[in-house]
């Protein structure tokens, strides 16, 4: 288990280091969700400082062990006007945050899990509707702890264990000085060095001088090793801080790239839809252009007879639908002019009000039928044009 310090900045550095770590000891979370996991834990620590993120080994039911993140500590539980602290462990499993975390009540040595309990099993596993109805990405750890606190306030999961009374200590026997003996003296330490034929005093001084030299060399060696260890430790701390800063920047960059990816995908989708709309409009314009070109070619030689032009015969209808469309349009515009004249006459006081309303109602009804007929004729003409263009393309 790797605990984290209580400093918020150090917690951020710890999470950045853990989530950016690679290798066998790295946490097995999806790269696309590591930034969200970090935000969930930082928001949780900000709202509930009694919880702290750690890494520990989690044992699955099938015997697999994996290194995971957890939030270990206590959550507040208001009960009868008093706030209690309930020890819990929130494990972030491999599939988090797409799936809910695993929550355990972690009783201390003087606590017992309440049996039976509506949300806590005898092993300490917590089951809540919030966990069962977990929705990614809206569900988070702060709301989960709030739900835990509310559920435990209704039905506390722990209660104190009764402590047994300690037995009375026996009275020690009276002290008897006759039962003690002084320890025997060690004669080997007081025994003098044996005499030397070359002078014992010179040999003892030589041995003492050699021991002092060996001690000085050993002290120098230890000091050098300690100095080297301090230098290496300082370099490691500097490198770790630099790597943590780089990991922090990379995680922030990853979040920004994720947002930009969503914006680009959304913009690309809008551009594809706009392209399809423009292609449809281009097809309609091409159809109208072909129709106008055909009309111009057919009527190009008729400009010489404009002197004796009859308005009623100026436009020749090529088929029945065109003639019907022309009649509906002419009648619609004529009725529009008649209604406008009635409005002017009524404003000038020439036409009475009841006669004005009767004529407008009759004209409006007739105009409605002409417009409805024109809409049907226009739809039929469009179908005929599409069929004609399709025949041209296939031919």
TrEMBL record:
Signal peptide boundaries: none
GO molecular function, one term: ubiquitin binding
PROSITE patterns: SB (PS51312), UEV (PS51322)
Gene3D superfamilies, per database record: 6.10.140.820, Ubiquitin Conjugating Enzyme
Positions of region (Disordered): 156-201
All residue ranges annotated as the UEV domain in the record: 18-162
A Gene Ontology cellular-component term: ESCRT I complex
Claim: Membrane is one of the keywords in the record: no
Domain SB: 319-387
Protein localization: Endosome; Prevacuolar compartment
GO BP annotation list: endosome to lysosome transport; protein transport
Keywords in alphabetical order: Coiled coil, Endosome, Protein transport, Transport
Stored InterPro entries: ESCRT-I_UEV_domain, ESCRT_assembly_dom, SB_dom, UBQ-conjugating_enzyme/RWD, UEV_N
Coiled coil: 261-288
Pro residues bias locations: 165-185
Family recorded in the similarity comment: Belongs to the ubiquitin-conjugating enzyme family. UEV subfamily.
The protein's name: UEV domain-containing protein
């Amino acid at each position: 288990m790797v605990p984290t310090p209580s400093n918020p900045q150090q917690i951020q550095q710890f999470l950045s280091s853990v989530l950016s770590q690679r290798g066998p000891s790295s946490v097995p979370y999806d790269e696309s969700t590591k930034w969200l996991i970090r935000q969930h834990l930082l928001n949780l620590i900000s709202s509930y400082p009694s919880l702290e993120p750690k890494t520990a080994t989690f044992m699955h039911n099938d015997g697999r062990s994996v290194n995971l993140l957890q939030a270990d500590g206590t959550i507040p539980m208001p009960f009868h006007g008093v706030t209690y602290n309930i020890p819990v462990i929130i494990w972030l499993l491999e599939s988090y945050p797409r799936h809910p975390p695993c929550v355990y009540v972690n009783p201390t040595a003087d606590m017992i899990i309440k049996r039976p309990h509506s949300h806590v099993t005898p092993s300490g596993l917590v089951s809540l509707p919030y966990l069962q109805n977990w929705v990614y990405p809206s569900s988070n750890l702060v709301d989960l702890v709030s739900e835990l606190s509310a559920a435990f306030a209704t039905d506390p999961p722990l209660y104190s264990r009764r402590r047994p009374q300690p037995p009375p200590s026996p009275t020690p026997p009276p002290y008897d000085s006759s039962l003690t003996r002084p320890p025997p003296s060690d004669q080997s330490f007081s025994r003098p060095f044996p005499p030397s034929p070359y002078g014992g005093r010179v040999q003892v001084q030589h041995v003492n001088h050699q021991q002092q030299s060996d001690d000085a060399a050993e002290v120098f060696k230890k000091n050098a090793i300690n100095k080297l260890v301090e230098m290496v430790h300082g370099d490691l701390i500097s490198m770790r801080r630099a790597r943590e800063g780089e990991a922090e920047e990379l995680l922030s960059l990853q979040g920004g790239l994720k947002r930009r990816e969503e914006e680009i995908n959304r913009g690309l989708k809008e551009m594809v839809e706009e392209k399809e709309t423009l292609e449809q409009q281009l097809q309609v314009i091409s159809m109208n252009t072909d129709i106008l070109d055909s009309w111009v070619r057919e009527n190009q030689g008729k400009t010489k007879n404009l002197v004796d032009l009859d308005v009623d015969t100026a436009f020749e209808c090529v088929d029945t639908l065109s003639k019907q469309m022309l009649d509906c349009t002419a009648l619609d515009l004529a009725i529009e002019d008649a209604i406008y004249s009635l409005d002017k006459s009524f404003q000038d006081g020439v036409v009475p009000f009841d006669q004005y309303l009767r004529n407008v109602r009759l004209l409006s009804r007739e105009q409605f039928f002409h417009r409805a007929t024109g809409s049907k004729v226009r739809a039929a003409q469009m179908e005929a044009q599409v069929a004609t263009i399709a025949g041209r393309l296939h031919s």
